[in-house]
Amino acid sequence: MPQFTEFTFPSSNGRTNIRVRKFVPDSAPRGVVQIAHGVAEHCERYDAFMKFLAENGFVAAANDHLGHGKSITDESELGFFAEKDGWDLVVRDMEKLRELLASDYPDLPYFLFGHSMGSFLARTYIIRHPQRLDGAIICGTGQQSPALVGAGKTMAKMICGVKGAKHKSDMLNNTAFGKYNAGFDTVRTPCDWLSRDEANVDKYIADPLCGFVPSAGLFRDMMGGISFIGKKKNIAEMRKDLPVFFIAGDKDPVGENGKGVKKAYEAFKEAGMTDVSIKLYPDCRHELLNELNRGEVMNDILAWLNKKLG
């Protein structure tokens, strides 16, 4: 039975405590997997995945990003990174967690798993810290057009300037997420695009720490991060031999039903990355770890990790 612990560490913003949940194998661990969650959710949603990893020999840990889960000082900060440099602060917090875990397990291979917004954060991380990891799993990502990202960032900055970075804009939220259900014939809830598992969708909707409207400042910061990872000069900074595994559903609107995921994969290959693989799951939507075939997905991730361990 894996050992579970929860702890906090000081955020890079100098005033918030970042919550971490960690699962450790009951035998000698073989590697470490750090998890970066998506927008408008929290790290506790990855407990089943982390337990699975720990049962198969990996230390697994996930933190609540700034403005998410329990990494807030009060409710006004839910969905808010910072007045400025929010994306950088979140990536720096990810590095702080890596330092903490790596100090406890200095000789173990270290992997990063990022989902959705966490996939964009993970892609930022492997550009800025090319030597820190032994592999990365990019889940539920996309490759939006620079014009679209630029327009979104401009709109968010304007709203921040007029109403403040903490303002919750329904217009921004609908622009970002409002069309994600459009590709499905039968729609039961506004969140059906997350997965085909109705119980998962209902649990997400019922969770007060999920599905909230992010702040204008978060949208501004996230668009800045997505712009950063889409530039060829930045992609070129990644370590060429870093193993990277792209996974997504072929009905995931965030990845344009696989098209955006393939674009990201090709961008990595064009940058000279030598160990990049991709798998698109038929009929799966955005949250692969909560899909009907989640067991298949987890076993594929485990097989990839085991292969990278040699």
Summarize the structure in words.
This protein has 310 residues and is an alpha/beta fold. It has a single domain (3-142, 231-309), classed as Alpha/Beta hydrolase fold, catalytic domain (Rossmann fold), CATH 3.40.50. The protein is built from ten helices and eight strands. It is globular.
**Protein structure class:** alpha/beta
Q: Kindly identify the CATH topology.
A: Rossmann fold
Task: Return the average pLDDT rounded to an integer.
Answer: 97
| Number of structural domains | 1
Alpha-carbon distance between the termini? 25 Å
The CATH homologous superfamily: Alpha/Beta hydrolase fold, catalytic domain
- In what order do the strands lie side by side in the largest sheet? 1-2-4-3-5-6-7-8
- What is the count of DSSP helices, taking H or I runs of 4+ residues? 10
Principal-axis shape: globular
CATH architect. name: 3-Layer(aba) Sandwich
Radius of gyration: 18 Å
Secondary-structure element order, as H and E?
EEEHEHEHEHHHHHEHEH
Q: What is the quaternary state of this protein?
A: single chain
CATH structural class = Alpha Beta
Number of E-state strands: 8
Main sheet: strands, sense, barrel: 8 strands, mixed
* Percent of sequence in beta strands: 15-25%
| Portion in helices | 25-40%
Give start-end ranges of low-pLDDT stretches. none
